[in-house]
Sequence to fold (417 residues):
Amino acid sequence: MGFEQTAALTIFVVTYALAISRRVKIAYVSLAAAILLVVLGVLTPRAVVFEALQWDVLGIYWGFMMVSIAFMDSGVPTLLAERILHLARTERHAILALAAATAALSVWVENVGAVLMMAPIALQISRRLGTSLFPYMVTVGIASNVVTTVTMVADPPSLILAIETGMKFKDFYWFLGRPGLGTLTVVAVLAALATLFFQFRGMSRRIALPLDQVPVSYGATVLFVLAVAALGLGHERGLSPGIVGVAAGIAALWLNRKHARKMFVEFDWSSFAFVVGIFVVVYALRSTGLLRQFAGLLHGMGLTTPALALAAMTWISVAASSFVDNVPFTMLMIPVAQDLAGLLGTSAWPLLYGMLIGTGSGGNITPVGATANVFACGFLEKHGYKVPLGAYLRISLPFTLAAVGVAHLLLWVFWLR
Fold:
């Protein structure tokens, strides 16, 4: 490796090691790494501004976070928390209902947006029950990511696959006479949610809380619905998602203008800054050719059967997406899957599906593997909770293995046999 590749790889490894340990504020870690890449000449300031930073994504994050803060102040999260607790028989049922609601919302909303909308509800439930917020927020984070392949608009990698291969919306459910990626993912999601029911079996305290009368205003809820609709319609008409996100954020500030200063203070600037820096760090891996070399390495692994190729594409994607942003990884791995299928004389679809499922769910394994989890853990830290890696993994690892394992098995049954 040359100097630029060595520097990019070293900075990447150190950045993620420090971020996972959370011994240093993650915003400082990623921003310092981004600055160091520029100082060392690995990236130019122009490349950082115009190529590395994903402005549309940042616009959505900022805007929907502002909507989330306005939503938190509206009283609706408290009302929803009351309804969930009234229907749930035990704490375990409450956390499962929260996970299911997050997953359903994340099918149509960007993952971070789903986390930001559900975080206030999780907070209200934990406060109402007098229990730790930690399992609720970790569950919200991982539930938002597990549905990334249910629809072609659930996450950017799914949309990238659809664009690159010409897939239509309905192809995600029934394609070439077989169950499509979205259909198989739904089964995998149910399996993952079932692990939560087992994992939290100790949370068996019965809930017998009366319904309280909660004063609410629905302005933020209406704004959220309109913003989601604008994202969908705007995409079809070529409107920048980032512009929609920023517009929603400005509208939220106006709607809650009496507390605009408080909204800026409550904004999770630390997680936002971490994402800014990590975009630059991952882009350095791509621009120096390291990700392309990794993709080429997969070609030479001696995979001789479609089953081995499917396993490799699925589980390597799980491992890689625990640390690498899923957008550049997906763009690099689509041609790799297609070329590998050509060498084996088999269909590329199962390999593409396996790669996408691994990429989507694999980010759940670590607190920094997916942006939604970064914000979920940032929400925890903002409310005084630490995020120990071991405690996080005890929830995320079984959940992820169940989701990917079931999807892998279904792909083998329906697409390879």
Q: What stands out?
A: The beta strands are 174-175, 178-179. The chain has a mean pLDDT of 84. The chain has one domain: 3-204+217-416.
